[in-house]
Amino acid sequence: MSNNLGEFIRKHRERLRPEDAGVRAIGRRRTPGLRREELAQLCAVSPTWITWLEQGRPVSPSPDTLARLAEALQLTAAERHYLFTLAGKLDPASEPERNSAADAVLRSVAQISTPAYVLDRQWNALAWNDAAAALFTGWLDRGEAAPNLLAFTFLSPVARTLIDDWPYRARRLAAEFRADCGRHIDDAAIEGLVAQLAAASADFAAFWQDYDVTERAGGLRLFHHPEHGRLAFEQATFYPATRRDLKLVMLLPVTEP
């Protein structure tokens, strides 16, 4: 953990007046703001733990503790987000995302001319355009609600012929999913999805047990389309600032070298 987290907490602790935090200031203070002992009391942790956190020692605050810190330090929404980002934790208060933000992200795919789709945390497709439906035969052209990319890749016979070099791409997809859901690996929905896929696909079960982790990156994507033959795209993945649980994936046509 970088000491940026400790410095951020210390700076905001020193800026907060005791009376604004509901702490009675007794006696003369040598340093401004809250004392570590006072912040610790407000957060229901030990003063030693606050000291270690500010010093950058290897302590790992839980999301609940970070939430209490944010409340005690009276952080703004942007400051709270930064606190959780520095700690590498997901803010539990950010889970119920704004519907308006989600709607804007989902509507955006209709304005894109190349194949594009939006995935949620379980890699269910929540929206896609006509170009994506035309490309992904057997997945986005079937009229299903929230069809899952992993289920299509590992359970559909169509995927094995549509996706070029299926064994490599499927193994990489499992590794990308593990990296993408790392912070939510114990989420019941993700656990259920992984269990279902492992039970239905020996390939997925083997790849998942390898514990490979790979960042979801762009790059060349090749397909063998039943009507249009061999197609090549450059994949680009975007994470909307207003909905970090969603991914907008675009496939830009390219000419193979």
Describe the model.
With 257 residues, this protein is of the alpha+beta class. The chain has 2 domains: 4-94, 434 Repressor (Amino-terminal Domain), CATH 1.10.260.40; 99-253, 2-Layer Sandwich (Beta-Lactamase), CATH 3.30.450.180. The protein has 12 helices and 5 strands. The protein has helices at residues 4-15, 36-43, 47-55, 63-72, 77-87, 99-108, 130-135, 149-155, 157-162, 166-180, 188-200, 202-209, and strands at 116-119, 125-128, 219-225, 229-238, 247-253. Strand 4 and strand 5 form a beta hairpin. Helix 2 (36-43) crosses helix 3 (47-55), helix 4 (63-72) packs antiparallel against helix 5 and helix 10 crosses helix 12. The longest helix has 15 residues, at 166-180. The radius of gyration is 23 Å and the shape is elongated. The two termini are 43 Å apart. Residues 33-80 form the HTH cro/C1-type domain.
Write out key terms for the chains shown:
2 domains, Helix-turn-helix transcriptional regulator, 257 residues, 434 Repressor (Amino-terminal Domain), 45% helix, Cro/C1-type_HTH
Work out the number of β strands: 5
**What is CATH's topology name of the largest domain?**
Beta-Lactamase
Architecture per CATH nomenclature, i.e. the level-2 architecture of the largest domain: 2-Layer Sandwich
Rg over C-alpha atoms, rounded to the nearest angstrom: 23 Å
Nearest-integer average pLDDT: 87
